[in-house]
Design goal:
single chain, 87 residues, mainly alpha
């Protein structure tokens, strides 16, 4: 059975939080080669996660499009983190 969009969004948020280096200090993120400013990308991704988590906390049901958009953005950010050797 497929999960509803709220459950899918919560699972996606948790997966993104574990996959991206949110816990790394700034000096580790900004050292070495820098392709596409990983610090700004992590800040953006963090704000997106906060936004969707707030919606879930307020019992707002996300659309399938919102789940898909967050997954697409996270994939691009993860790819950028890989280019910068952070994941």
């Amino acid at each position: 059975m497929k999960p509803n969009t709220s459950t899918a969004m919560q699972l996606l948020i948790q997966e993104i939080q574990t996959a991206l280096p949110f816990d790394k200090p700034e000096h580790e993120i900004c050292e070495g080669k820098c392709v596409g400013c990983p610090k700004k990308m992590l800040e953006y991704m963090g704000s997106e996660l906060d936004h969707y988590q707030c919606q879930l906390n307020n019992n707002e049901i996300p659309t399938l499009g919102e789940v898909s958009d967050l997954a697409r953005i996270a994939k691009k950010v993860h790819r950028n983190m890989a280019r910068n050797n952070l994941v």
